[in-house]
Write a structure and sequence with these properties.
Layout lengths: L2 H11 L14 E5 L4 H7 L4 E3 L8 E3 L2 H7 L10 E2 L6 H4 L1 H19 L1 H4 L8 E4 L3 H10 L5 E5 L9 E3 L16 H5 L6 E5 L6 E2 L2 E14 L2 E13 L12 H4 L3 H4 L12 E3 H12 L1 H22 L11 E9 L5 E7 L9 H18 L1 H5 L4 H8 L6 E6 L2 E5 L7 E2 L2 E6 L29 H8 E3 L7
Parallel strand pairs: 1-2, 1-3, 3-4
Antiparallel strand pairs: 5-8, 6-7, 6-8, 9-10, 10-11, 10-13, 11-12, 11-18, 13-14, 15-16, 16-19, 17-18
Length: 468
């Protein structure tokens, strides 16, 4: 690594250490490596100031490349936050995700029995090539004529993906021992996963779709995870058929792929909001069936996070906003396709922009930089001296100063609901209100997101002032 890169990461780490003794800063310095919706959210957040290049920072929304080059060379003060865990790839690389899920399922079967282990049967049969080529061939021969999908383990946006039904189509991934001498002399092929293709996807208007859902993890030890109520279904632009496995517009729902279709209409787009999808499914299949479906989707989030809990390097400076991709089959069984460490924050429409803006605002509320930095003014110092948990947010509405007060015990912040806090989290108002002792999970994916009303409950006037 170059000396300059080391210095850049190192300098940001010492952001507060070099503050003069007793100095109080009334703003938060942020760095952002992206130029899409997150940049807009950060720019418009009151009391936040962007720093460029090698400037000191308190908060960094970086890409995974920056993390890889700089994280290990950065010393971070207590309050500093960064948007990835050091080895996030244990969950977000396709091969490692499956490896960790397989290990977790095996441990569950040994410790809790087959019924408990069966709760992890939500990912298709998957093999890493070329390392598991021989094992894959055995499985391939058990179901001749089946369709498989090949995916590079570390690429995104549908790049490098193709479907196949014949072994000759993946000859490049044969294990070295079976390749010719000329092939062995060539450069090693890129690692891929071969995954059993879901041949019976649930269709709407004849089109395939998958779900993009957002999960925020603020800690792995203990595991603390939030589920956002908003999300969307991404549709293919072409009616589904298995007759042509070479047509990406039929089989891949990634927006990056679909928007290149000749008949793609940018005004119409190819997304439904999660609320629209939930209403559609409820109207067609009934409330109880859809409740069961979404409960099974919740199970995917929790089990996948638990599968890497002991593997992820937990760091109090880190948080992660994951983008989960879930596919439904015609039996309404959800399948985990992949987990993204850098879900796209680029909007494809105004509706999409609004969703992502709300999502990112709520993420910053939970990360709570204002509270962690303890911006103390004379009045606040007196309040803190009395044991108040209160922090300053530089918002002035009609000359009235407000405080955004979190206790750390919230089960909801904006559009996020706390679904796991070192154990399952249950909703405050559930079936027990109707005389039933059943516990209801605190998850509301696709439900009404009245986030503004909820945030107003957290936004309190400064002591001595009146709310307007």
């Amino acid at each position: 690594m170059s000396k300059n890169k080391q210095t850049a990461g190192h300098k940001g780490a010492y952001s507060s250490q070099r503050k003069k003794e007793g100095e109080v800063r009334s703003y938060i310095r942020y760095r952002c490596g992206l130029t899409n919706t997150i940049q807009d959210v950060l720019n418009q957040r009151p009391g936040w100031v962007e720093v460029k290049d090698e400037g000191d920072w308190d908060f960094n929304w970086c890409d995974v490349g920056w993390l890889r080059e700089n994280f290990d060379h950065s010393y971070m003060e207590e309050h500093v936050r960064i948007c990835h865990f050091r080895n996030h790839y244990e969950l977000t690389r396709k091969n490692l995700m499956v490896k960790n899920l397989k290990r977790y399922r095996k441990n569950l079967e040994r410790e809790a029995g087959r019924l408990e282990a069966a709760k992890c049967d939500f990912f298709p049969r998957t093999f890493e090539l070329p390392s598991e080529y021989h094992i894959f061939v055995e499985e391939f021969k058990r179901s001749p004529g089946s369709t498989w999908i090949m995916k590079p383990v570390a690429r995104s946006q549908g790049k490098g993906i193709f479907l196949f039904r014949k072994l000759k189509d993946i000859i490049d991934w044969r294990k070295d021992g079976t390749r010719s001498e000329e092939q062995r002399d060539e450069a090693q092929v890129e690692s891929y996963v071969a995954q059993r293709y879901i041949e019976n996807p649930y269709l709407i208007a004849g089109r395939k779709f998958d779900l993009r859902v957002y999960v925020l993890v603020t800690s792995y030890i203990p595991l603390k995870a939030w589920l956002h109520r908003d999300g969307f279904a991404r549709f293919s632009n072409t009616r589904f058929s298995l007759n042509s496995i070479d047509d990406q517009y039929v089989h891949l729902t990634n927006v990056a792929v679909q928007k290149t279709a000749p008949d793609y209409d940018p005004e119409k787009g190819c997304k439904w909001l999660m609320q629209q999808l939930r209403c559609y499914l409820t109207a067609k299949h009934g409330f109880e069936t859809v409740q069961t479906l979404f409960k099974e989707i919740d199970n995917i989030f929790i089990r996948s996070l638990l599968s890497v809990q002991k593997t992820i390097i937990n760091d109090k400076h880190c948080f992660e906003l994951y983008g989960y991709d879930i596919l439904l089959d015609q039996d309404l069984k959800p399948w985990l396709i992949e987990v993204n460490a850098s879900p796209s924050l680029t909007a494809s429409s105004q509706e999409d922009y609004d969703l992502k803006y709300r999502l990112l605002e709520d993420t910053l509320h939970i990360v709570d930089m204002e509270g962690r930095y303890h911006l103390t003014f004379d009045k606040l110092q007196k309040l803190l001296g009395r044991g108040w948990r209160i922090f300053y947010v530089d918002i002035v509405v009609q000359n009235i100063l407000f405080c955004f007060s979190l206790t750390g015990k919230e089960k909801r912040v904006g559009g996020f609901d706390l679904m796991w806090n070192d154990g399952p989290v249950y909703t405050d108002v559930g079936l027990e209100a109707m005389g039933c002792s059943c516990l209801v999970a605190n998850t509301h994916l696709g439900c009404v997101n009245d986030r503004q009303k909820q945030l107003q409950q957290l936004l309190k006037p400064f002591p001595g002032q009146k709310r307007t």
